[in-house]
């Protein structure tokens, strides 16, 4: 990830213990006193053997929103790495859920709060809100005219960063802002390509991963710079095929990642296109979930994933998916990309 802001984690409980820090992070964390306004503390009984062994305590504090605006929870704010944030996720049991908050000092930080206060519907709604803001960013980029012949991919990428930061308050991107033009639109995620000048009849696609209020968005949209009818047909088919594949997901509650990937290939072929992606999507959640081990393990819509997509995560929570449609012309000379959240009947 580029342009990464420092990660702050607020702890009011056992993550402040030196033995827990050494077991979880392999080092002692540096922190400063702070407080979480508008919350109060209660206790939760811990039954996970590894957590009991690490903390040495059967009852752990847990926070939840308070009815009194005067309440606050004292604690310590630590500056940590992304890997350490994932390690903290692994330490906390399913009674806790990580949320983005603003501390008394004004610092924005992660904190683990009571999971009973945020259900499946709330998590899905947070992802939907993040996605809607990401599509708003795409609309703003269109209105600003950043996609035009004669501009390089890198110039467009720089404009995306500027507008995202200035107009949408984006401080984190869970993946690099991707701009692909012309033949580069055949490349899959993570595949390097030389910076290309946008030509008069190119397809250009944008693939954005902004983080809003701690939730990952992942949106992609394609644009035809010129008037080539076949390129316009491909771009129009992207959303159509997305809808058809999403219906397959809605109808089959036992569908696996491999089966949905096969459905994407089938729908592309019906319309005379090749499917260009090695995967057809992935899991998404609270940042940095999409890059976490939990997301990589069974977290791809791919030929090798035989797991039911509606199976819950290790904490028993529903998982949420991004569906990607990557189409390529039969002769392999142009392609396009579209992605967004699978909203239809997500969860178990």
UniProtKB/TrEMBL annotation:
<dbReference type="Pfam" id="PF06094">
    <property type="entry name" value="GGACT"/>
</dbReference>
<dbReference type="InterPro" id="IPR000994">
    <property type="entry name" value="Pept_M24"/>
</dbReference>
<dbReference type="InterPro" id="IPR036005">
    <property type="entry name" value="Creatinase/aminopeptidase-like"/>
</dbReference>
<protein>
    <recommendedName>
        <fullName>Peptidase M24 domain-containing protein</fullName>
    </recommendedName>
</protein>
<dbReference type="Pfam" id="PF00557">
    <property type="entry name" value="Peptidase_M24"/>
</dbReference>
<dbReference type="InterPro" id="IPR036568">
    <property type="entry name" value="GGCT-like_sf"/>
</dbReference>
<feature type="domain" description="Gamma-glutamylcyclotransferase AIG2-like">
    <location>
        <begin position="9"/>
        <end position="116"/>
    </location>
</feature>
<feature type="domain" description="Peptidase M24">
    <location>
        <begin position="141"/>
        <end position="286"/>
    </location>
</feature>
<dbReference type="InterPro" id="IPR009288">
    <property type="entry name" value="AIG2-like_dom"/>
</dbReference>
<feature type="region of interest" description="Disordered">
    <location>
        <begin position="294"/>
        <end position="316"/>
    </location>
</feature>
<dbReference type="InterPro" id="IPR013024">
    <property type="entry name" value="GGCT-like"/>
</dbReference>
